């Protein structure tokens, strides 16, 4: 089973989003899109370029956190319960 990396914003990222002039357009856009559910592949497709190295850099700077283990566990729980983890509960 391959490891899918997913990243979410940290409180520090929320502060950075208020100052896009300080972080730059690419970082700002990645921070906006990182929601803990999108994989690095999805984020790269949305931004039109590979953002793997940038995401890791932002993680080291405390702006993103890896939520892969949490997301995988939630997805497994949803699948076990017979629900699609990508669909919202009605």
The major β-sheet equals: 3 strands, antiparallel
Q: On the 0-100 scale, what is the average pLDDT?
A: 84
Termini Cα gap: 30 Å
Main β-sheet, spatial strand arrangement: 2-1-3
Low-confidence stretches: none
Estimated share of beta-strand residues:
5-15%
Number of helices: 6
User: How many E-type strands?
Assistant: 3
What series of H and E elements makes up the topology? EHHHEHHEH
Secondary-structure content class:
alpha+beta
Topology summary:
Layout: E1 6-9, H1 11-17, H2 20-23, H3 25-33, E2 35-39, H4 40-47, H5 52-60, E3 64-66, H6 68-80
Antiparallel strand pairs: 1-2, 1-3
Protein model, in words:
With 90 residues, the protein is an alpha+beta fold. Helices cover 56% and strands 13% of the residues. The protein has helices at residues 11-17, 20-23, 25-33, 40-47, 52-60, 68-80, and strands at residues 6-9, 35-39, 64-66. The chain has a three-stranded antiparallel β-sheet, with helices on both faces. The longest helix is centred in the C-terminal third of the chain and has 13 residues, at 68-80. It is globular, with a radius of gyration of 14 Å. The relative contact order is 0.20. The model has no long low-confidence stretch (mean pLDDT 84).
List keywords for this structure.
13% strand; alpha+beta; 6 helices; single chain; globular; 90 residues
Brief summary:
This protein is α+β, with helices and mostly antiparallel strands and 90 residues long.
């Amino acid at each position: 089973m391959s490891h899918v990396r997913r990243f979410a914003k940290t409180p520090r990222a929320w502060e950075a989003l208020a100052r896009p002039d300080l972080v730059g357009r690419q970082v700002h856009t990645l921070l906006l899109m990182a929601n803990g559910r999108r994989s690095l592949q999805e984020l790269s497709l949305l931004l039109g370029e590979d953002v793997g190295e940038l995401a890791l850099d932002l993680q080291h700077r405390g702006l993103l956190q890896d939520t892969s283990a949490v997301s995988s566990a939630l997805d497994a729980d949803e699948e076990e319960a017979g629900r699609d983890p990508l669909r919202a509960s009605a």
